[in-house]
Amino acid sequence: MELFQQLDEGELSQRLMETLQAPPLATPADHRGPPATQMHHLELLPSQRVAALAAMQRAVSEGLTTSGTARRGLGGFIAAWQEYAEYPGVTAVSGEVGDVCTKS
Fold first, then answer.
1. N or C: which end of the chain has fewer CB within 10 A?
2. Percentage helix, strand, coil, to 5, in the chain?
3. Who's near 1: CB < 8 A, 6+ residues apart?
4. pLDDT for position 103
5. Residue 8 region, left (φ>0) first, then alpha (ψ -120 to 50), else beta?
6. Higher pLDDT, 96 or 36
7. Is the pLDDT of residue 83 over 80?
8. pTM to 2 decimals?
9. What local confidence, expressed as pLDDT, does residue 99 receive?
10. What is the pLDDT of residues 17-73, one digit of tens each?
11. Residue 102 pairs with which residues in a beta bridge?
12. Distance, CA of 18 to CA of 12 (rounded, Å)
């Protein structure tokens, strides 16, 4: 969300905010991560997926980070959004600001 806000991508930021307000997906019994690692179902239109990928590419090229990624950077974000842009299946976003990952 923070990255989309920094990049003036209001529609994408709003969509992620709405997604994170919904109850998370069921957590596997062996899950040991903190609440920030809970997953949420995220459905974007193909055009929104491409826009999100383009925004992430811009963020990386501009050296942007978020409060949750300042130390580790945005490694993996492009690959995750690329996979989501190309794959019509399920995708999840974690509750930690800025973290997005795909599930196949």
1. C
2. 45, 10, 45
3. 13, 16, 17, 20, 97, 98
4. 41
5. left
6. 36
7. yes
8. 0.69
9. 42
10. 898 899 989 988 888 888 777 888 888 888 888 888 988 888 888 888 777 777 777
11. 91
12. 10
For the record, the structure tokens of 61 come out as 């090229």
Rounded to an integer, the average pLDDT of 81-92 is 71
Instruction: Tell me how crowded residue 66 is: count the other CB atoms within 10 A of its CB.
Output: 18
Nearest to 6 by CA among 49, 70, 50: 70
| Whole-number Å distance between alpha carbons of 61 and 54 | 11
| Encoded amino acid at 6, one letter | Q
Contacts 24+ apart (CB under 8 A), 80-85: 81/49, 81/52, 81/53, 81/56, 82/53, 84/44, 84/49, 84/52, 84/53, 85/46, 85/49, 85/50, 85/52, 85/53
Q: In b/e form, how buried is each residue of 22-52, taking b as 16+ CB within 10 angstroms? A: eebeeeeeeeeeeeeebbbebebeeebbbbb
